[in-house]
Amino acid sequence: MKRIVYREWRIPAARYWGILGILAAVVGLGGLAALYLEHGGHWVTGMSNSVVWGVPHVFAVFLILAASGAINVASVGTVFNKDAYLPMGRLSGLLAVALLIGGLLILVLDLGRPDRLLVAMTHYNFRSIFAWNIYLYTGFIALVIAYLWSMADRMGAPFKHPVGVLAFVWRLLLTTATGSIFGFLVARQAFDTAFLAPMFVIMSFAYGLAIFLLVLIFSCAQDGRPIGDLLLQRLKNLLGVFVAAVLYFTLVYYLTKLYGAKNYDLVGWLLLRGGIYSFTAWVGWVLLGTLAPLGIIWHPVLGRDRRWIVAACALVILGGFAALYVILIGSQVYPLQIFPGHTVIASGVADGVREGLAQYYPSFPEILLGLGGVAVALIITAVGVRVLQFLPESLADPEESAPVGPGALKRFSIDEAAAG
Amino acid sequence: MMKHPPEGIDQGRRALLGVAVGVTTAVVAPGLVLHAAALPSGALAGAQGTGPVTDSVRWGLLIDTSKCAGDCRACVDACDRENGLDLQTRPAGQSARAWADQKAVWVRKVKLADDLTGRVTNLPLMCQHCEHPPCVDVCPTGASFKRADGIVLVDRHTCIGCRYCMMACPYQARSFIHEVMHDQLSRVPRGKGCVESCNLCVSRRDHGAPSTACADACAEAGHHAIVFGDLKDPGSAISQALKGSPNRQLREDLALNTGVRYAGV
Amino acid sequence: MARALISAVLAALALVGALAAQVVLAGDAQGYVKAGSRAATHGACVEPTQYMRRHHMDLIQHQRDATVYQGIRGTRHSLSGCIDCHVGPGSDGHPVAVNAEHQFCRSCHEFAAVKVNCFDCHDGVPKGGPLSESAQSAMDAATQQGLGRGAADGSVRSAREGQGQ
Description:
The complex is a heterotrimer.
Chain A: E1 6-7, H1 13-40, H2 55-70, H3 72-78, H4 89-110, H5 117-122, H6 129-152, H7 160-183, H8 196-222, H9 229-259, H10 264-273, H11 276-298, H12 306-333, E2 342-346, H13 364-387, E3 391-392, H14 398-401, H15 406-419
Antiparallel strand pairs in A: 1-3
Chain B: H1 11-37, E1 59-64, H2 74-83, H3 96-102, E2 107-114, E3 120-126, H4 134-138, E4 144-146, E5 152-154, H5 164-168, E6 175-176, E7 195-196, H6 202-206, H7 213-220, E8 226-230, H8 237-244, E9 260-263
Parallel strand pairs in B: 1-9
Antiparallel strand pairs in B: 1-8, 2-3, 4-5, 6-7
Helix pairs in contact in B: 2-7
Chain C: H1 2-28, H2 49-70, H3 79-86, E1 88-89, E2 95-96, H4 104-112, H5 133-144, H6 159-164
Antiparallel strand pairs in C: 1-2
C-alpha cells in the first residue's frame, strides 16, 4: 500500500488568519453571552420553569452527537479495515475531540452555577446518567487522543486496532448514554422510551459524517488537495445509508407513539397542531433533513456533483438541528399529563395558553452561546490542521496516481481485492 | 541558540539559585510550622441544638379536593410568605408573561374539568415527596436528595443548576431561580442558579412546628383540605384520614409511592 | 565570595522585611469585628479567635451538611448564628449585611483574597427568625391545647425527642 503523506494546511496566511478571526469573534460573542447569562441570571433567556432546556442544549447535544459520529470515519478505517478510509483517520479524530469540547463548553456555561464545576467533578450520584456522562465524555477525549497517537506515531501502530475498537465501543456507549438522558425520563410522554438511545446513535452516525464531509471538502479544496471521486462517492453513499436509517428510526418512533391512545394527543399536537414545532418536524426534520438529502445522494446526476453533495451535507445538519429542537424543546412545551381524562383549565404556571402548552422563544444570548460552541470546535480544527499534520496530502483515488501500465493496474486491483 | 565557546559551569548562577531556595524556605517554613501546630481543638464535636432526623417518621400530606375551593389561594399565599417567595421581584426589563413562567412557584392551584362530565376539581399541586423520586435519581451531584424522614429537597450547596431534575419531575414541581436574589428570609436561603421546590416547610419541621404553612392556612381559611402528618404513625390524623376515604397518588402508574395523596380526583 | 556575601545580606533583608510585613498586616487584621455588633461585646467567638480564623470555613462546611442532610438546627456553629452576632449597624441604625463593603465577612475575605459566595443564597442580615409568625402562632396554639410542644396530631418530633436519637 502506498505511503500516506500528511501535511499542514498551507493556505495563504491572510486567508487562514481571516478564518481564525471570524471564528474568534464568534467565540468572543459566545463568551460574552455566557457572562451575561451568569451575571444576571437565566431570566435573560427564553428558558423558564416549564421549558428548562433550550437552544444551547440543542446545540450542545448536536455537537456531542456529531463528535461521536465524526470518529466513525477513523473506525471504518482501523476497526473495519477499509483501507480507503485510513488517510482520513487523523482528521476524524481531531474533529471528534473538537466537536465534543465545543458541545461540553456550551453545557457547562449554561449551568445555573458554572462556578461549581469542581463540585460536579467531585460529587457523583452514579444513578444519574449525567454523572456517567461526565466520565464518558472526558474519557472519550482521552481515548481519541490516544487513538490519534496510535494512528500517527510509528510506536503506536500495534495499538491502532485495539485502541480503535475501544474508541468505537466507547463512542457507542457515549451516544447511548446521551440518548438515555432523555430515554430514562418517565415524566414526559415524548421520552420514557429505550428507543431514544439507539435513535441517537443512528443520528450521530449521520450528523458526524455530514460534518466530517463538509470539513474535509472545505479544507482540501482550500489547499488544493484532491479528493478522488470514488472516495467521495463512497462517503456520500455511506451518508445516504445513515440518513436512511435515521428516517427509519424517525418513522418507527412516531408510529409506535401513535399506536397507543394515550399518545394520540401528543403526536397529533406535534405533527398537526404544534405551529412552529410541527413545521420544524415536517419541513426541517423530515423533508429538508432526511428526504431531500436522500434525494440528492441517490440522484444519478446530482449525486455526482460536489456542490450538491455539500448541499446534502448541509441539509442533513439542518435536519439534525430541527430534529433535536423538536425532541428537546417540543417535548417540554407539551404539558405533562398529570391528570389523564381531565382537561386542565388553569395550571398555575402556563395559564391562558391553549392546551396548557408552555411558551418558548429562543433568545439572543442562547443562540450566541450555541454558535460560540460551534466556533470553538471549528477553531480547534482549523488550528489543528494548520499547525500539525492531520490532513493527508492527497485523497485521490489510487487509479489516478498509479503509474500507467497494465501490469501496475493489475497489481493494484489484486491488492484492493485483498484489502477488501 | 547563541553560540558560546565551551565554558565551565556558571557557579554564580548556581549560588543564586541556592540562595533563592534558601530564602523561600526560610520565609515559608515558620508559617507552615505554626499552621500545623494550630490543630483542631475538637470543636467540631459538641454540636448542641436539635438531633438528626430519622426514618422512624415519614412526613406527608393528604389533600381532599372536595374541600378545595376554586378561587381560594390561601395555601399559595401562605407558602409564599413562609418561604420568602413573595419577596421575588421581576427583573427590570422582563415581560410579565415571561416572568410568570420564570418566577419560583412551590405550590400551585390547579383547576381541572372532567372530559366526560365537565365536573370541576380544584387542588394544590406541589412536590409529591416520592419514595422513589425521579429527581433524586437524575441529579448528577446528588444535590437533590431524600432526607431520612421522607422530605425530598435540594442541597443548594451542591446544586450546579443543570435543571435535569426539573426535566425529570413528573409533576413539574421544581423551580429554577432565574435572577439574582437580594431578598431572602434567613430561614430559607435561596440564590440564583439553583433549583428548589416545596420542602414541606422543613425549617418549621426541624424547629418543631406542628404543620406546614399551607395546611395551617387552609385550616384558617375554613376549608381544612390539607392535612399534614406522619404517614408511618397509624394513629396520626393523616393516617386515619387516608384509611377513611379513597385516595390515590397522582400518576400512580409511575409507582413512585408519593408522600402526598389526593382524595376526590 | 563578595557576590555570595551580598546575596546573603539581601536575602536576610528580604526575610526581615517579609516577617515585618506579616506582623504589620496581622496587626491590621485585629479590627474586623464591627463596633455596634453583638460580637463586639463578647470577648471571643464561639471558638477561640485564632481557631475561628483558621477553621471557620471547616466548621461552616460541616455544619451546613449537618443541617441540610440531617436537619440539625440551632447549633453553636450555625451560619445564621454568625450573621446574628456579627452584623453591624449602619449609619441609620439598621443592620448592614455582613458581606457588604467594609463589613465583617467581606473585609477579612478581601484581605485574604478568598471569594465568599455564601451570600448568593444566605441573606447578610438576619431577616425573620427561625420560625415565621404563622408557625409561631401555630406552635403556641398547639401548646395551649396542652398537647405538648409541637404535637398537634401526635406525630411531630419535638426537639427534645430528636436529641435523644
